[in-house]
Specification:
heterodimer; A: mainly alpha; 3 helical TM bundles of succinate and fumarate reductases; elongated; B: mainly alpha; 6 helices; 81% helix
């Protein structure tokens, strides 16, 4: 740490890495779900409900939702940093993104453990 | 001398309008900006819409039937689904491509262009396939 300018921010490696890992997690989950959709001749309500009542599927879906929240936070923050110049507006929009992602997560938990 | 240099047009910043209307991007650039646009669309409104569909379809048999028999037969809902499929497919394929670029695979110009074309073609093909199935 030589002459590092203290900005209060970290330098982005963790976010960069997290975005890649969460992306991979979501890609794997997507492929599993795709295989399920293709292998089922017709999706009925009982089979659809049964799918999301399996313990591993609930955990996997929650993992997907959490990955999405982290992944989308990094991505949206990148977009906002690039295009929204006034600090007050960017900060407000970043807070908006976080609130929306928290709502998504809460909603997902509610759907899965109803 | 220096005043003549000062009068020269300043280089442009990469503003959104410049990206959209002034700069003609090469194919890998198009994949990149479409990755952003599809990501934005997936974050909002598509994720919220899909959560709504999941919520209603899992809540009860009636909800499932309503989504399946009526709601998803509306042309606007089909278009929304198609937009989702394109955005997801593009974001997925371009994301895989970026992961390979991160580990220095496919960075040669020729390969980078070829994989960019592949990303665009594959995601459009998936979208067309689902579109044909829907209609």
């Amino acid at each position: 740490m030589v002459n590092r300018i203290v900005t209060g921010a970290h330098y982005g490696l963790r976010d960069w890495l997290a975005q890649r890992i969460t992306g991979l997690i979501m890609a794997v989950f997507s492929l599993i779900l795709l295989v399920y959709f293709v292998s089922q001749p017709a999706i009925t309500y009982p089979s659809w409900k049964a799918l999301f009542e399996r313990g591993w599927m609930r955990v996997a879906t929650l993992l997907f939702a959490a990955s999405l929240a982290w992944h989308a936070w990094v991505g949206m923050r990148d977009i906002l940093m690039d295009y929204i110049k006034p600090t007050w507006l960017r900060l407000s929009m970043e807070i908006g993104v976080l609130v929306v992602l928290a709502l998504y997560l809460g909603w997902t938990v509610q759907i899965l453990w109803r | 001398m220096s005043s003549a240099a000062a009068k020269k047009a300043r280089p442009k910043y990469l503003s959104l309008t410049a990206l959209l209307f002034e700069i003609r991007l090469p194919l890998p650039g198009r994949v990149s900006i479409l990755h952003r646009i599809s990501g934005l669309l997936l974050f909002f409104p598509l994720a919220a819409w899909l959560l709504y569909l999941l919520d209603v379809s899992l809540a009860s048999q009636e909800g499932f039937d309503r989504i399946r028999e009526h709601y998803l037969n509306l042309p606007i809902a089909k278009l929304g689904l198609l937009l989702f499929v394109w955005a997801y497919a593009h974001h997925f394929c371009a994301g895989i491509r970026f992961l390979f670029l991160d580990i220095d695979k496919g960075t040669a110009l020729k390969t980078a262009r070829a994989t960019s074309l592949a990303v665009i073609v594959v995601s459009l093909a998936v979208t067309v396939f689902v579109g044909v199935k829907l209609w």
